[in-house]
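Lab meeting notes turned into a lecture example. A postdoc, R.K., suggested we walk through two folding results consecutively so the class can see how the record format repeats. The first protein's sequence and structure tokens come next.
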Amino acid sequence: MLMLMNTAEADASSCVEPGLSARPEVVGRVVRVLGIGNVLLGDDGFGPFAVRTLEAEYETSEAVEVLDAGTPGLDLTPFLADARAVIILDTVRSDAAPGTLRTYDLDQLLSTPPLPRTSPHEPGLREALLATELVGRTPDSVLLIGVVPASTATGTGLGPEVRSAVPAALELAVTELVRLDVPPARRDPPLEPDIWWERSGPLES
């Protein structure tokens, strides 16, 4: 899950990813769709599940990269730097009912981000965005499509509330791709999504 800090900003110099320098001239900047989450923690696997389902149901152009980013931690910065736009699918903390979708744009993420989760694998999305902003390599737009999880206990597979939210989350992602002028084409018939962790059997805590 994404760690989206509400606390006072750290010293700006500490936010820069080592080796992250000012943006070079980039031709044909891509749109990235990132699924973030730990597939061994129940509903936290929503992001990887969603992007793999997106790949199975839609064909995207070369201008779009669809990536299962797993749990990149502070290594999230390279996924953001130099992209034209980034769409992120992940779980978010909220008092809303499990399965509820929440969306946040770039300005919201930088100013009033959603409350943080407390887990050792959480990447700092706000910190990564600040790092790219410092060197002028921030995406033109960012959209976080978040779902409220029911359980992130050890185990594979999404719960019914989060699984049922996947189609609506994908519709939001496709709508954003259309807005960005990189519309995906629906596959007919769709492919079988590669949800490998659900084929490997249950994992209990």
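The second example is placed directly after the first for contrast:
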Amino acid sequence: MTMRSRRRRPTTTHARSAAALVAVVLLAAACSSTGDGETKGAGTTTPTTSASTARPVIDPGDGGQYHPRLRPADFVERIDNPYLPMPVGARWVYEGRGDGEPERNTVTVTADRRQILGIPAVVVHDVVMTGGEVTEDTYDWYAQDRRGNVWYLGEDTRELEHGRTTSTKGSWEAGVDGAQPGIVMPAHPTVGQAYRQEMLRGEAEDMGEVVATGVTRRIGNTTYDGLVVTREWTPLEPDVVEEKTYADGIGLVLDRTVRGGDDRSVLATKPSGL
């Protein structure tokens, strides 16, 4: 998609699974190109890494001991992080390709809330259509703390084929069966900042890392300034790396697989409700 990380489905021939969520080939801030999604201006970035990089691709620095403690009093009502704003009614439409098939992905912030760990999480509806059919239908749960970090508290996801649910793999909820929440957008993204986005052993283990800030890129017909670029990776699919690009005041504008595939999703129209 989109706000979440994407996984390839082992049981279907088209569409991708989301567990929601970013690249061994990174931005070079000094490069200049007019290609779709390529760096055009200067920004802060990390060095380019070869495909032979030792595992893990991302190291959150916790040595595998991850036990965040969230206090409801530390969370706020609204999600207004400039790089991942989620006002009620906001809607983003993305178009691209997943597993070689054309995809259209619609993400809508609902007025619903779900109590998770005592926190009233914002409910976001994420629908993927492939060939005119819904192939993935997901409800994601997010919340923002007082510092401005956006937390991912879980998802209820279904993969569909010809209208029938084929899998709910990747669904999880913080606090249930040992699942732990994670951060999907830091309050103040800084190059080299690495973080867990979720943790449920064997089901949801996505990680993120900020690889560039202050970037200028032409994406589609729009040139954006001050972009934040992240990469995402999970040890459950160690050969796949995604890269996501976020614009100030808009959120995600480009999501692409940079290793282990060629999936790509681009913001197709100006978001509504922001």
